[in-house]
Design brief:
27 helices, two-stranded antiparallel sheet, about 5% strand, four-stranded antiparallel beta sheet, 6 strands
Amino acid sequence: MAASTPVRGVLAFTLLFAGSVYAQSKAPAKEPIKSPTPKVKLTPEQQRGIRLLMGSEAEAAGLQPEMRAFVLWQVSRGYSQLQPEKSKAVLREALKVTEAVEDSPPEGCVWEVCHMKWYLQLHLISELMQRSEAGGNYDEIEQMLPHLDPRVRNEMVSRLIMLYTEKDKFSRARALLDQFGDDSEYPYWAAEDLMVQDPHPADRLAVFQQAVEHFRQQSGTDPRSSDLATMVMRFSHDLPAGTVLDAIDQILSQAKDQDENQKTRVGLNTGQNSIYFDSRYQFRLFQLLPVLEDLDKSKAESLLRDNAEVSHAFDKFPKGPQSMDPKSYGDQPLPEGEYGMAEVDVVESKDPAGAANEQAQDQQMAQNEAKLEKIWQEADKDPAQAYQDAQELPLKGPSGNPFPPRAHAMQLIARLAIKKDPDIAKKAMGDLQKLTSDIDIATQARMLTAVPNFYIEIGDMEEARASVKDLMKLADKLYARDVDSSDPNLLFKGVWPSTALWRRCVQFGAKISPEFAEEVIAQVPDAEIQTFERVNYGATLAGSEPFHTSMIEWHKNGRHAGVMF
């Protein structure tokens, strides 16, 4: 499986949260925080939403910690437009509740929701920070850092370093950078930004030396789009030659050691260009040889003679990665709104037969995607031709791709041709429903969420209501799989496929009538999920954006899937 790391792949989440919250001892569940009298007159829809939110807030007191924190998070989202101060208070309460959440991920699970304490704190902090950035005072955030899950704390420190760097508060950024211990993943991207902005050479050198020491301690780290090698590429001319050469030796030595234990392919993709090597060591040479040529030409020439594949790469890209993407590897800050596009791709080596099979599947997927792109372009201009072209797509996709290409094309046509040719659009929608009748129910649910919205858009509320009820039957089947006593879904209920599909049913039901939406909620058989669906509906009525999350299942029997609705 490939693992890519964007150059500036930064999660923008931060925290405004009183330090006293965590200092308090745990107390019994409190009554819902009382709302102040609204200063504006609420519409009937908003009033209904506030009532639902207050009821859900009260119900949350009886839930288990992870679901309680999750529901309070959604309650706070609902209050955010009409009662922002109360919204922040509820967010703080939700974050306090996460103290009691246990992290017990299923073995091998890789999704963020496998680690509920981390997941909840991460998102709660993100929303609190978004509401506090205007003030620009992060003192309270720093006070809370010791009380957070270590992974969240590291992410928060990285974000704060970036914020202080942007505001030229270099000493505060440096102080935070010093908090990363040897057992923590070093924030190379934040350190690079600090080195770019900080005008003091001695401070830049100190940051670089700190990064070298962390790299030395954290052996076994695969190449990434921001790491010690990218720091060498960007700042070698501004640092003592001996320090840079020592860093290069460390990087090359570590790559050799890793290659002895695990063979892998490593590549660099920039959107316009890509190049792959058969080992980490070759990739590191491609990164670092341009610097070595400046500092130790004879050593660079010797290494290049011994590595023909790397030599050929330089024939195409004479300055290495900088030839491929100058923005990512320049020593100047990028203009606001611009980002480097380079991504490092680490790919597990495969036997020849497996590699050939994967390549054939990739080619088939590429062909299907090209045909889908053509249909996308045709659907609102010549729907009949798009429908005809869709018949050429296979009924099933390559192994590992759950989405049937022809059904996917019909979904596109139904949506895009609805105004140009309603008859073709209806025909495509009918085909979609037939073509998905015998596929896995989770994929079926994912594709059929297009049906109610289609009928709502053409004004056929009777068909829309019927299609929502069909989705509810699918949700019941998914729920039976989620709670199967012999092999239940081991993840948090908030991301179960059944929960995600019921949420979509409620959203569609609300477009038909408030009464129908509440009817849908009332038919959810699980009390906790019902509370979750009710708070999401209330939040939408109160003016917040619909909540989006993946539908994920993880079973001991090997059924693992994650799909965004």
